[in-house]
Amino acid sequence: MGPEATCSCCGYLTRLQVRTWIEPVVASTQVASSLYDAGLLLVLKESFADRASTNHSASPTPRDALEDQQQKAISNFYIIYNLVTGLTPLLPAFGLGWLSDRYHRKISLCVALLGLLLCRLGLLFKVLWDWPVEVLYWAVGLNGLCGGVSAYWSGVVALGSLGSSEGRRSVRLIFIDLILGLAGFCGSMVSGHLFQQTSGGPWKGLVLTACSVSCASFAFLYSLLVLKVPQSAAKARKAPPAVDTVSGTVGTYRTLDPDEPERPGVVGHPLSPRKAKPQKTIIALLFLGAILYDMAVVGTVDVMSLFVLRAPLHWNQVQLEPSCSSLSSPSRPSDQ
């Protein structure tokens, strides 16, 4: 084989290996989620502010009362929104996981990204045609029926684990978390500026929501058309069977002694009963830790954004997202 053929073969293998990287999907999806979270909160603020000012145009109302009504309306919206977000993906995520294990690894990832794209399109259509905010319940419900963040993140972890060896698997997953955090921070930093591009026009937040839809579309098309399932780097190597040679002959022959007992080719080390199955106590503690973390950290971050919009802080669009992004967890994908 000549050097030109060797170089072309190496270039093809390099391109094929690049197509197995899951990092572009994670980065673009997290940027889209950060832009969507910022756009959703700011669009809700503008919508409920206009609704409150219209209802109280006849009789003057103190500013504090209007802010209280606006905050109450936004919090009531998020209560229902978060319930739909958390409950609808339960059964679809299990079904997509089963299909991914049985047929193809990209099924759960692609279907979940399709649901995320449809949810972002729902916010874009609300901004374009001034639909009521209740339409977003249907959009996030459709996202949940496509698996939601549960199916998406399980697909990311599965593909990331397949493309790494057992010794470097934790490093690969930590690197994916790093990409997730950096992409979310960058998306949060630019979200306020993008929202202000059309803040004075009839379509408030159009540029922000359009950028979110563009990033989500790129992630979906990349995972569907470009991304390849990597071959497992941790395949077990089968040891050759034991062979007895006969001296003085050409080649190698197996001994045919009928009295010699059979010897296994590979000596296995059976696992102890404790190592064979994980302890239920450890699994229960992991679930308990996840629930406590979600109640303490995630719930605080979700509620905090409702209080910084009103007095005495009155944060604007530019101040809101960079400040809240520093409080969010970099290892938690956005679930809005």
From TrEMBL:
One of its GO terms (molecular function) is transmembrane transporter activity. InterPro entries: MFS, MFS_trans_sf. Signal peptide: none annotated. It is found in: Membrane. One of its GO terms (cellular component) is membrane. SUPFAM superfamilies: MFS general substrate transporter (SSF103473). Keywords: Membrane, Transmembrane, Transmembrane helix. The chain crosses the membrane at residues 78-100, 107-129, 135-162, 174-195, 207-227, 282-309. Residues 254-274 are annotated as: Disordered. Gene3D superfamilies: MFS general substrate transporter like domains. It is a multi-pass membrane protein. Pfam families: MFS_1 (PF07690). Belongs to the major facilitator superfamily. SLC46A family. This is Solute carrier family 46 member 2. It comes from Phyllostomus discolor (pale spear-nosed bat).
